[in-house]
Design a protein that fits this description.
Layout lengths: L3 E7 L13 E6 L2 E7 L3 H7 L7 E5 L5 H4 L2 H10 L5 E6 L1 H14 L6 E6 L7 E4 L3 E7 L7 E7 L5 E2 L1 H6 L4 H8 L4 E2 L5 E2 L5 E2 L6 E5 L8 H4 L5 E5 L7 H6 L5 H11 L3 E5 L9 H8 L5 E3 L5 E3 L2
């Protein structure tokens, strides 16, 4: 099974169209589901994608525009109707915590699960989740309202133990975990076998960054530096460059410039305006700057690698 997979549930902009739903996606990591933004239709899209709602542990809301959060009350209510247990944490700004708590108290006053709200800062720079294998952090974006992006980073992985070397030097099983974590091996006669002779380099750590609604600004590249997969809004193509600036959005080519400056692995475009009948122009303009570019689409499941 892939370590990290991104499921696109919605990649449209403020006004839904017959082609795209409002912003919503799910990051699946080692069986754990974490939702990023929750536009209308999120719970139905989860069902269509075959994602089990009871595995959802966290919901990260980038900002409080309706197309990024109005699916949340219905989803929280449905989870209770299904008698979902466990704990679910919604990460959002203080106004969002108050607003959605009131909605839940009115529409679903007796939840079957422990719902928690975690207040986040629009200034970014926070660690929202820290597990033995993964961290989720925030970084500031520039939009008409307070807005942050989210970065998912795997922690460094263990080195690969060379079985032939381990057997040759007689490393007992109870010491092999420490060797994979970087320890040297001291033989009974006092001889020290350096770790680099016993192991091979670890697999690269994966990372994913989500850049929601934002005006183009070059410094953003620092926040998403060297990310494996970058999702960046591309509401408009270059034919609407001035409109993008007026509305604090980005074009596909501007997203590509961020990906190039950040040395990202792959760029995934989304948050498309309903003004376009297709995103061919977005893709062509972005690939002219950053060839490793893909288009988001509802139903897409993309492995981070």
């Amino acid at each position: 099974m892939d370590q990290m997979t991104i499921h696109i549930l919605g990649c449209g902009s403020a006004t839904p169209s017959l082609r795209h739903l409002p912003a919503c996606q799910v990051v699946e990591y080692r069986g754990r589901l974490m939702m990023v933004d929750c536009g209308e239709g999120a719970q139905l899209s989860m069902r269509r994608a075959g994602l089990q709602m009871h595995r959802l542990t966290d919901i990260f809301i980038s900002h409080l525009h309706g197309d990024h959060c109005l699916g949340l009350p219905g989803l929280l209510s449905t989870l209770s109707l299904q008698q979902t247990g466990g704990t679910l944490t919604v990460h959002t700004f203080p106004d969002g915590c108050r607003m959605f708590r009131q909605m839940v108290d009115f529409f679903a006053p007796r939840l079957s699960y422990d719902l928690r709200f975690n207040e986040i800062s629009p200034k970014g720079g926070e660690t929202l989740l820290d597990t033995p294998a993964l961290t989720v952090t925030t970084f500031p974006l520039r939009h008409r309202v307070p807005c942050v992006g989210f970065r998912f980073d795997e922690k460094p992985k263990e080195r690969h133990l060379r079985g032939d070397a381990a057997n040759f030097h007689g490393i007992p099983p109870y010491l092999r975990r420490a060797i994979k974590q970087g320890a040297d091996f001291t033989k009974p006669d006092g001889t020290v076998i350096p770790n680099e002779l016993l192991t091979l380099p670890p697999d690269p750590s994966l990372s994913y960054a989500y850049c929601s609604d934002t005006l183009y600004f070059p410094a953003l590249a620092d926040a998403v530096r060297d990310v494996t997969l970058l999702y960046h809004e591309a509401t408009y193509a270059d034919d609407n460059l001035s409109k993008a600036a007026e509305r604090f959005h980005s074009t596909a080519s501007q997203a590509a410039m961020i990906a190039r400056a950040a040395s990202a692995g792959t760029l995934l475009l989304g948050h498309f305006s309903k003004a376009y009948n297709n995103e061919n122009r977005h893709l062509a303009e972005a690939r002219a700057i950053f060839p490793s570019t893909l288009l988001a689409n509802e139903g897409l499941s993309l492995s981070v690698r």
